[in-house]
Specification:
The structure is a single chain. The protein is an all-beta fold. Helices cover 0% and strands 49% of the residues. The chain has no helices and 20 strands. The strands form 5 sheets. Strands 5, 6, 7, 8 and 9 form a 5-stranded antiparallel sheet that branches. The protein has a 4-stranded antiparallel sheet with strand order 1-2-3-4, with no helix packed on it. A hairpin with a 5-residue loop joins β1 and β2. It is globular, with a radius of gyration of 17 Å.
């Protein structure tokens, strides 16, 4: 990634997400006194541009929040939804993009599970499907949670140690991908068909390498191009895996 255009100092870009067209958003953990910014890259070689500068007073916070995760659905040049979560909190911030213009003031929601860890995320469901999908771990529980448009719980898949994932629509069906950190210190890569409201596994493989992962940071990303599904699975200490799957 091209670092030209970044104005932050003292820490790097730690959280990233892509929209449906490959535009990239990234942000720091916001631990220093620098103003929190969501940066945008139009591709992997483009210069970074400040996309959203979010003052803590706009977020209703008394201090600069530490961010935990980021998710996007839609097209940043058209209509999109951007979701950012706060570390060790139930706070979730949602920005809307309409015709390429972002509303700088986010809607604030409360995640229905208390209290997530340092790394957790919420992604919007694909455009045309209302609601959100959350990926979380707490001191008491962990898993995936399907939520409605105001982040009320719809259904849950418990016992999954993960911090992120992705949701996509292919040929009228809805799929979620995630990587779970398992008890043998490996990443378990999964894709589930959730069209009927259940987490039906259709892809389930375990990474070969093992490694320590104290924060259970594990995620996945999906994209369809030329009628093929591109899936990337990552797990701290275990590795990064890439798959190309034919769509039917």
């Amino acid at each position: 990634m091209n670092e030209t255009g970044l104005s932050i100092a003292g820490h790097g870009i730690r959280l990233m997400a892509t929209d449906d067209k490959g535009n990239i958003l990234g942000t720091s953990l916001a631990l220093s006194g620098d103003k929190p910014v969501l940066y945008r890259w139009s591709n992997v070689t483009a210069e970074a541009k400040e996309f959203i500068s979010y003052d803590k007073s706009v977020l209703g916070e008394s201090a600069t929040p530490r961010l935990a995760g980021i998710g996007i659905s839609g097209d940043l040049d058209g209509n999109a939804t951007i979701v950012v979560t706060k570390a060790q909190s139930v706070d979730v911030y949602v920005w809307k993009v309409t015709n390429g213009v972002v509303n700088p003031t986010p809607q604030k929601y409360a995640f229905p599970v208390a209290t997530p860890s340092f790394y957790w995320s919420v992604v919007p469901m694909p455009i045309g499907t209302p609601g959100y999908m959350g990926f979380f771990s707490t001191s008491a529980t962990n898993g995936l949670i399907w939520m409605n448009s105001t982040m009320g719980e719809v259904s849950r898949s418990s016992g999954v140690r993960t911090s992120g994932g992705d949701v996509i629509t292919i040929n009228g069906r809805v799929y979620v991908a995630y990587t779970a950190y398992s008890g043998d210190q490996k990443g378990v890569m999964r894709i589930c068909d959730i069209t009927d409201g259940k987490f039906n596994q259709i892809f389930n493989y375990t990474m070969e390498a093992s490694g320590a992962n104290g924060n259970s940071t594990a995620s996945a990303c999906l994209m369809v191009k030329n009628n093929e599904l591109y899936a990337v699975f990552g797990c701290t200490g275990s590795g990064l895996y890439f798959y190309r799957i034919a769509c039917r």
